[in-house]
């Protein structure tokens, strides 16, 4: 895939970029390794100051950065501005919390015959991040903020369709005063990733992306015995029980399924509704989905913009066609509008069965599956009948039902009566084919640290 900015609302290629050759990649890695030797000795106070300055840069240029995000991957501009603001908050969060998260952890010295024993968290070195296009700023910041505050340096291979966003973020860190080469954007294609992982100066890898991409990176890193954190796909359930506030649940369901034009790993995708309220929820959900404004993502009034790539829309069309061809019913949407760009209508589909591809595969577009469940047991069985385990939603005011969902849903996150999202304050990650490791909170900053045990006699 060429490294290029292509407007998904029109299909027009705006600018192409030259990929780094092997010599330049090696030089960049070398600069990162040299920068680490100096950077790891900086203080938490210094790093926190730079992080707060980066947050200020983001706030000051939020509109311009949001416009670039919207241009490159089609996110409605209101959502793009919210993404920039979220990144600034995360930087400030780690600026205030990193030192406490990584403070020496006292251990029981008496138990091991020591005068003193503790764990010291220390940075590892240059970490490669392979990043996706759907949240082109947030996905990078949620890795980079904790990594940089811990004393690591960052090499970012961003998605090939968001080069302007990637380069703009590199400038944010430079403008904030971070040492040169502490954060670098690598303009490279996917074919270069294996060679970068193989370089002994790169000590670890994190990836947010598809399941096949995760397998490839994990295999390459495993051959070199390098730490990996993977956040992969999701097919999150959204369960609605009779005690739920149905109107609120339908409103959140609509937002969750169509945020980022339906291209979010933790978007709810499978809506499992108790039979007692299925008809009422179905009517509310369809009404809200059909009321959304599909259009130019640069327009403030737009709710749903285009899919980021032409292939992405083709993938959605194929999954819907496969389901309909085997008996599924489209309740609304199901078409691409007659206009330029890679748009697809918000869609609700029912009658999806295990023999259909959509039942097992992640639908990366504004398409919602609607299922009915006889009781809580069947709802949980349907929710867990997937290879993925990223996030989950459960809507009920019954304390016993809430407790059961918390205990039995197989996912990295369970959100009760609210939309699954990511916060700097909460660990984020999945199980099963949704990956392993955690980002954000205290667990995220420790992923790329050496937990060094210290024994003092």
Automatic annotation (TrEMBL):
Q: Tell me the domain of life.
A: Bacteria
Coiled coil location: none
Query: NADP: present as a keyword of the record?
Result: yes
Q: Which residues form the Aldehyde dehydrogenase domain?
A: 3-454
Q: Which UniProt keywords apply?
A: NADP, Oxidoreductase
Family per similarity comment:
Belongs to the aldehyde dehydrogenase family.
> Which protein are we looking at?
NADP-dependent succinic semialdehyde dehydrogenase
This protein's species is Kibdelosporangium persicum
